[in-house]
Every structure is written in C-alpha cells, then in structure tokens.
Design goal:
- The chain has 413 residues and is mainly α.
- It has one domain.
- Helices cover 72% and strands 3% of the residues.
- A two-stranded antiparallel ribbon has the order 1-2.
C-alpha cells in the first residue's frame, strides 16, 4: 500500500509539473484550450486514484458546497432569465470547470512536500518560455500566431491578441517568483518578474499592469503584516459590495471628472458608461437578477451611444454592452442578484481565510495574497466572469499556487 501511494504521488506530481510547464506557452497561441488542459489533468488524477483504489485527495471543506449553491442558483435563474438556454448552457459549462477545479485543488493539497520545488521550477520555466514566445510575436508582428490560426492579424491594436496570455502570467508569476527566490535568490526572482512585466507592458491591457502592481503592493504589505493585510482586503471587498448599487450615480461623476481633467482614455470612459448602464439594470432586479449569462441580452444592450466628446470635437462611440460588463462582481449581481453575490463573496472570504489558516510563514501568505490580489483586479476590470478559458485559468492558477506553497515540514518560509 505504501508503494502504491508513492507511485500515485509521483504520478500526480508529474501531472502538475506538466500543467505548470505548458499552461503559459499554450495561452500564447491557444488560450481557449486552457479548459481542456485542466480537464485532462483532472481526469488523469481521477484515473490515478481509481487505479490506486482510493481517493488520495485532501478534503476541501465548504468550497464544494458553495460552488454547488452558486451553480444551483444559476440553474434556477433560467426560469426567469431573458435567455434561458444561455443560462443552462453556462451552468453546464461551469459545472464541468468546477468539478475539474475541485479535483485539482484536492490533489494539490495532498502532494508531497518534495513536489513543490519541481512544480515551481516548471512554472518558472513555462513563464520564461511564454515571455520569449510573446516577445518573438511582438518582433515579427504576430507572424507565428498568424501561421497557426491561418488568419491575417488585424492592423491597429493587434497586440490585444496576447492580453489573455499576459493576464494568466500575471497570476502565475507569484508562485514562480516564490520558487525562484527560494532556489536562486531575490535578484533572479526580480529579473523574472521584471521581464514578464516588461512583456505585459507591450500589450494593450492596462489591467494586467494594474494587476501586477496591486499584487506587488498587497504582497509587500503581507510581508510586513499578513493578518492586517487579510483584514484590510476583506474590508475592501465589503466596501466594494456596498459600492456596487451606487454605480449609476458614481460612474457619471467619475466620467465627467476624467473628461474635465483629460486624464483617461476612451476605453476607460466606455467602461464607466457600461458600468452605469449595467448597475442601473441590476437595481431593477436586485434580488433574483436577470438570469445567468444574460448580460448581452439586456434590453437595449447592443445600442450604440456616445461615450464622450473629445476636446477637438471628435466623438467616441460604443455599445452599452457587447458581451459582458468588464466587471466580474457587477456581472454576478446583474445576473444572479443578491444570492449570487453572497455566494461569490463567501468564496472570496473563504479563500482569504484559508490563506491565513493553512499557509505558514509570511512569504507563503504574501505570495498567495499577491495571486489573489492580481486575480481580483483582472476579475473587476477585464473578462466576462463565466468565460470558460478565464474560469479555467483562475482555478488552474489556484491549484498550481496551492501546489507550490504547500507547507514544508522542515524550515518555514
């Protein structure tokens, strides 16, 4: 039995090493395949458990129940949703992602301590390869991506095709730097971080740079006092929750201020217009919401409006909502109402509390909080909350972070 468990542990370690190595490079050319990587990895773990005739995964406490509650409410929302078929389809997709996520997290928690460095080094190598690939794409104006997809890349703004990849790297960079710091020292870790940040700065995603900066800020604060940082983060989440219903009033004021000070781009102004509209619709159905994944089906969502008028008399136009509001919590509130928001906030608080209870040492807690902070920024500024590749990226990043930060029985960090 001991021999079987050892073989099983080695197999699961290899699975996580493979995921850590390929997830970043894959995102450069085929980010839509990230869910498939997570699914295959979870399936491989389950097959290993079946062959070992036991589930070696660690218990996950309330997490499965909270995810189940969120998905059940999403399924129920199809009854009153403006697009019932979309709600059901999204629930099915998120259920598959959630099952894979729970398997990977459970397996990550049960990995032997000796696996952490291997996984962290594989993750760092994968990030370095990703940086090189993206740099080559920038140098060749997307030549290889064009060859792979068989399509000509757009002229202006073509670098936004790599926004997904650098967003994923903004999550993975922290456990990778933690491993490099422990193995090779602070200069090597800062070099990896600096190169990745420099690569990210070449894309059109300002949110990624904000995520990297905020992750560094939160991680640095946690190095000074992990407990205070966790409490401040929780308080900030509560403040954000309270602020959501006020967006129909706050967003126009913020837009007017930015126009007067000439301190913002058309993209930022457009998002404020979107948030104002979405929050106003959410206030119409605050309890039950409009139904899971119903944002693009809202009345008048596709209507094009004047976002702003420039100083030279030009007009910036944009749709009220295209696919999603570029704000994860606002989207949850709009579509799933108070119960959905309560479930998501419970998940966020559970993650912060877990960091404090389960990770020993300031470096580990700081690393985990940096991942959480970067993910929170991207959740609030970038992608649709139910996008399959994005959900898979969040959960795979969480599983890899847990695998790398698993407490050692020897020297605490």
């Amino acid at each position: 039995m001991i021999e079987n468990n050892t073989v099983s542990s080695r197999t699961e370690t290899r699975i996580f090493v493979c995921v850590a190595l390929i997830i970043g490079p894959l995102s450069v050319y085929a980010s839509n395949w990230i869910p498939a990587v997570g699914a295959v990895a979870a399936l491989a773990v389950m097959v290993r458990w079946a062959l070992a005739r036991s589930c070696r995964g660690a218990p996950l406490g309330r997490l499965p129940w909270l995810l189940a509650a969120l998905l059940l409410w999403g399924a129920l929302s199809a009854v009153w949703a403006v697009a019932p078929s979309d709600s059901i389809e999204t629930v099915a997709k998120m259920s598959a992602v959630s099952i894979a996520a729970l398997v990977l997290l459970s397996a990550a928690l049960s990995l032997p301590s000796g696996a952490t460095t291997k996984i962290g080094l594989a993750l760092a190598l994968g990030i370095m390869i990703s940086d090189i690939l993206i740099s080559i794409e920038f140098t060749t104006h997307g030549h290889f991506l064009s060859l792979i997809t068989g399509e000509s890349l757009p002229g202006l703004g073509w670098t936004n095709l790599y926004n997904r990849s650098v967003s994923l790297l903004a999550l993975l960079i922290w456990p990778a730097c933690y491993t490099i710091f422990r193995r090779f020292g602070p200069i090597a870790a800062l070099t990896l971080f600096g190169v990745t940040a420099a690569v990210a700065s070449q894309t059109t995603s300002a949110a990624v740079l904000v995520a990297l900066a905020f992750g560094a800020l939160v991680g640095g604060a946690a190095m000074a006092s992990p407990q205070i940082t966790r409490w401040v983060f929780m308080a900030a989440l509560v403040a954000l929750l309270v602020a959501l219903p006020t967006l129909p009033t706050v967003a126009p004021l913020a837009k007017d201020y930015m126009l007067r000070s000439d301190s913002s781009s058309g993209s930022t102004l457009h998002r404020l217009v979107i948030w104002e509209y979405v929050a106003a619709r959410a206030n119409e159905r605050p309890v039950r919401g409009w139904g899971m994944d119903a944002t693009r089906h809202l009345p008048g969502a596709g209507q094009e409006v004047v976002v702003a008028t420039t100083s030279d008399g030009g007009v910036i136009r944009g749709a009220l909502v295209s696919l999603h509001p570029h704000n994860g919590l606002l989207q949850v509130w709009l579509e799933l109402g108070v119960p959905g928001v309560a479930a998501v906030f419970a998940l966020l608080f559970l993650a912060i509390a877990w960091i404090g209870r389960q990770l020993d040492g300031r470096k580990r807690q700081a690393t985990a909080l940096a991942v959480f902070a970067a993910g929170a920024v991207l959740l609030e500024l970038s992608f649709g909350v139910w996008q399959g590749w994005w959900q898979a990226s969040l959960w795979v990043s969480a599983a890899l972070t847990v695998a790398v930060l698993k407490p050692h029985s020897a020297a605490p960090a």
